[in-house]
């Protein structure tokens, strides 16, 4: 552990030994102690070194304000890979960072063994920090060559579409076929063959069928970053690289997003267990670390305040504890391997546990009042999962590239179940039009369900 307190370094080594003894299986973890301001930069940029963009600065200011008001505190940031990279705040207490080390080992075990993490790491590679730094270097070179205004315009569009990938597709895809596949002519049956053999009957020669141009896209395309990178009529190579870079990072982060409740709960379960079984820790350090654990997994934002948003640490920790008590650790490991948050919540958040945790669906009124709308377990599960569908973004597909280069997008509102913020949709459409450089139209529905088309002209 770089520049570490020797006491913390010793505890970390012994906790790792205990983790291995208890069956945790993970890629090596590189721990690094960093100042709080650097930790905030990592949290808001998503990576220690990433492509420069003004939106990250806005997020940094927002996080700084929240932290100054006491609403947010970052204990650690961990990046899965081989090796994993974990950053700890250097002015945390030794008990806090001891807990964080144990927490990170839980994350590392989850990342190596969960099927979704394993699949996406296989596609994107296990060296995200080095890859992101290389991409940032290429964008810095583009800034020098093409200027801030042009590069920032492309980044605006790519980052506005950051969640619009198709996680059911591979990261590295081939372009569409350029020609429509020809159907074979039906074979003549016995009757037609005898008819053609009659005197005076013969089959007239036919010209060979001309191959036809395949439509683009051949079916609705939900991976908008990939589609624009490959089919925007006038996109230059460096612009295409930016779109593909944002897409690759979005693929890398998807498992973190889709397994947040499971992952944070698993890490919290293991940090609690490791601390409990680490008999080498002094009693006062253990008590201080458990106090930090309680702060992390508490259900409420403050004393006597009802939580209107789910704390993934608390919910995940509670479900894993309930599961392990009822089914045992080996069954829990199999669930950890096979599920994401969708299966985890639907299959293992029981009615009894939801009642114990006081989970419910609520409605907010214009006057600021809050009303409990539903306590049904199915409604509670779906309310928790609703923000996770399609990376939390409306489901939009490219459906037709016209001969003049104009593009049609369609909002799949029926399967989406999510309305559009029209003002935001118009802004994003303007970003797309800047790089598409042809008219772009988005087909959606209005508030009353009537068809609506939002159109952006070429800029």
Protein described:
With 459 residues, the chain is of the alpha/beta class. It has a domain at 128-160 and 217-256 and 394-456. 53% of the residues lie in helices and 10% in strands. The strands form three sheets. The protein has a four-stranded mixed β-sheet. It has a three-stranded mixed β-sheet with strand order 1-3-2. A two-stranded antiparallel ribbon has the order 4-5. Helix 4 crosses helix 11 (260-277).
Radius of gyration: 27 Å
What level of helicity do the residues show?
40-55%
Average pLDDT, rounded to a whole number, is 83
The N- to C-terminal Cα distance equals 51 Å
Within the largest sheet, what's the order of strands? Answer: 6-7-8-9
Shape: globular
Main sheet characteristics:
4 strands, mixed
Strand coverage percent: 5-15%
**What sequence of helices (H) and strands (E) makes up the elements?**
HEHHEEHHHHHHHHHHHHHEEHEEHHEE
Number of strands: 9
Low-confidence parts lasting 5 or more residues at pLDDT below 50?
56-71, 300-308
Q: What structural class do you assign from the helix and strand content?
A: alpha/beta
DSSP helix count? 19
Core attributes:
459 residues, alpha/beta, 4-stranded mixed sheet
Secondary-structure map:
Blueprint: H1 6-21, E1 29-34, H2 36-45, H3 54-68, E2 76-79, E3 84-89, H4 94-113, H5 115-124, H6 128-146, H7 148-160, H8 190-196, H9 224-231, H10 237-258, H11 260-277, H12 283-297, H13 312-327, H14 329-338, H15 341-348, H16 351-356, E4 361-364, E5 370-374, H17 377-385, E6 396-401, E7 407-411, H18 413-416, H19 422-436, E8 440-445, E9 451-456
Parallel strand pairs: 1-3, 7-8
Antiparallel strand pairs: 2-3, 4-5, 6-7, 8-9
Helix pairs in contact: 1-4, 2-3, 4-11, 4-12, 5-10, 6-7, 6-10, 7-10, 7-19, 9-10, 11-12, 11-13, 13-14, 15-17
């Amino acid at each position: 552990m770089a520049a570490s307190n020797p006491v913390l370094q010793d505890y970390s080594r012994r906790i790792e030994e205990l983790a291995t003894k208890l069956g945790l299986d993970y890629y090596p973890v590189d721990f690094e102690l960093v100042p709080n301001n650097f930790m905030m930069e990592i949290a808001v940029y998503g990576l220690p070194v990433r492509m420069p963009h003004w939106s990250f600065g806005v997020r940094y200011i927002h996080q700084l304000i929240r932290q100054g008001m006491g609403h947010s505190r970052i204990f650690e940031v961990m990046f899965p890979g081989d090796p994993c990279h974990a950053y700890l705040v250097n002015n945390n207490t030794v008990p806090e960072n001891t807990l964080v080390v144990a927490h990170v080992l839980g994350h590392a075990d989850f990342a190596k063994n969960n099927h979704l993490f394993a699949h996406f790491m296989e596609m994107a590679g296990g060296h995200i920090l080095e890859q992101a730094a290389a991409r940032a270097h290429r964008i810095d070179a583009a800034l020098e060559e093409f200027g801030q205004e042009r590069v920032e315009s492309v980044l605006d569009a790519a980052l506005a579409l950051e969640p619009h990938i198709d996680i059911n597709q591979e990261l590295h895809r081939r372009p569409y076929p350029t020609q429509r596949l020809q159907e074979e002519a039906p074979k003549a049956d016995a009757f037609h063959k005898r008819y053609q053999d009659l005197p005076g009957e013969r089959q007239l020669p036919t010209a060979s069928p001309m191959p036809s141009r395949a439509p683009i896209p051949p079916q609705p395309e939900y991976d908008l970053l990939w589609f624009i990178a490959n089919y925007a009529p006038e996109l230059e190579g460096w612009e295409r690289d930016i779109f593909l870079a944002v897409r690759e990072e979005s693929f890398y982060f998807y498992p973190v997003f889709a397994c947040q409740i499971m992952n944070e709960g698993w890490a919290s379960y293991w940090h609690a267990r490791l601390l409990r079984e680490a008999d080498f820790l002094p009693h006062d350090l253990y008590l201080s670390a458990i106090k930090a654990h309680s702060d992390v997994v508490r259900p409420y934002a403050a004393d006597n305040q009802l939580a209107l948003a789910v704390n993934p640490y608390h919910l995940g920790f509670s479900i894993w504890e309930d599961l392990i008590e009822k089914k045992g650790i080996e069954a829990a490991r199999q669930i950890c391997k096979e599920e994401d948050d969708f299966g985890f919540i639907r299959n293992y958040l029981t009615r009894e546990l939801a009642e114990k945790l006081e989970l419910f669906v609520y409605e907010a009124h214009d006057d600021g009042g809050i009303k409990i709308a539903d306590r049904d377990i199915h409604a509670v599960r779906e309310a928790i999962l609703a923000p996770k569908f399609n990376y939390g973004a409306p489901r939009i597909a490219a459906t037709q590239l016209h001969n003049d280069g104009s593009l049609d997008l369609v909002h799949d509102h029926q399967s989406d179940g999510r309305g559009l913020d029209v003002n935001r949709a118009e802004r994003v459409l303007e970003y797309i039009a800047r790089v598409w450089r042809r008219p772009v139209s988005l087909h959606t529905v209005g508030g009353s369900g009537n068809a609506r088309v939002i159109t952006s002209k070429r800029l």
